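cron nightly-structures :: item 1 of 1
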Amino acid sequence: MAMTAGGSSGGAMGDINVTPMIDILLVLLIIFMVIVPVTPKGLDALVPQPPKNPQQQQPQNDRTIVVQVVYRPGAAPAYKINETDVAHNDLLARLTEIYANRAERVMFVKGDDELNFAYIADVIDIAHAANVDHIGLMTPKIMAGQ
């Protein structure tokens, strides 16, 4: 901080040296310019698309597989594959059977809001063990079409 003594009016006059402050601001600007492009843009998500012709039914073998984990208060959750009840112990065998002859190995997992995410993660692990390549999570916004 530079100070000049004296002035035309006879009193002390103080001038603040702003050069260090401008140097700090320029350094911060450069830091932010370097950091911003490095931040991740997000995750690519697979979202089930509505069929082009809703009147035309897809063959049973080509249906999109949705594994639903249903909350049951005070008990272990129930599991469904396309609205068909499946026991947790049979989930791996059933998914392996479904994806044995499929070229496209895509599955979606839908869980109730009250569930602990550990149950959803368990289904994802089972799907990976059944050689499912892509697993998507169905959220309320996705189901509403937003």
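cron nightly-structures :: done
The chain has four helices and seven strands.
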